Amino acid sequence: MAETFPLPSTQRAAEAPILELAGVTAGYGATVVLEDIGVALPAGSALAVLGRNGTGKTTLMRTIVGQADLHRGHVRFDGLDMASEPCWRRTRLGVGYVPQDRDIFPSLTVLENMTVGARPGRWDTDRLFGLFPPLANRRRHFGNQLSGGEQQMLAIARALALQPRLLLLDEPFEGLAPALVETLLRVFAELRRSGLSIVLAEQHARLALGMTDEAIALVRGRIALEAASHALLDAPGRLDDVLTVQQTVTTPKLQE
Ligand SMILES: Nc1ncnc2c1ncn2[C@@H]1O[C@H](COP(=O)(O)OP(=O)(O)OP(=O)(O)O)[C@@H](O)[C@H]1O
Ligand SMILES: [Mg+2]
Known about the structure:
Elements: H1 10-13, E1 19-28, E2 31-41, E3 46-50, H2 57-65, E4 69-77, E5 80-81, H3 87-93, E6 95-98, H4 110-115, H5 125-131, H6 133-137, H7 148-160, E7 166-170, H8 178-193, E8 197-202, H9 205-209, E9 214-219, E10 222-228, H10 229-234, H11 245-249
Parallel strand pairs: 3-8, 3-9, 6-7, 7-8
Antiparallel strand pairs: 1-2, 1-4, 4-5, 9-10
Bound molecules: adenosine-5'-triphosphate and magnesium ion (MG).
Adenosine-5'-triphosphate (ATP) binds at residues 28, 31, 33, 51, 53-59, 100, 203.
């Protein structure tokens, strides 16, 4: 069984992790994608999941939310074993998910997309429109009338409207213009200040490491490297074996 991911401080070590994966082997049907994954995320902290195309980042997210098949091991959220919990109940318990393809409902308006399944709490409509002002101006536009950046903002707003305690973000910066990257960085900082726990899958290592406390890098579905994010930022060469050099030392090429 895999070692669980080291906790960043003695103070945090005293707390039970909000998310814990131990010895996780998972995939789709009989196909194994992830093997022997161990992660322990302290409440209020952020974990970067790095890795090249097809290394299993999305499958890790799906395993946590219950959209992939857990073959072996445990997924615990706030101490509760999630193995038998269906996807909708994991959401209800506080696991928010912003999928890589955003999954905006094309025939619903921005407001309707945002409020589908919404629950009362900190992230109400006013606060969400405050977080993403461009969405407020487009509240009556339909999902299929939005730009990629607007869809990404809406996908995050919709996940927050369910009042999660853990938010999984799957490559939220993919394909966004620099101005929108800035907007998302500001939002991310605000989410961190709110105490939300975050798992961020990202191919652009430098971007992700600057936003998180800890990082893991996947190679062919296994954890090839785990370290404090700042330590990897200070020594990007450590990622050379698991990511391309370009991804670790250059700013991502961004396009709308
Ligand atoms: N529904 C599925 N059924 C079978 N295999 C799948 C399925 N979805 C993904 N895979 C396989 O699982 C592996 C990991 O894919 P995954 O999407 O998790 O990688 P990723 O790291 O998120 O990639 P990317 O950076 O391109 O988003 C790939 O080999 C992929 O072909
Ligand atoms: Mg993916």
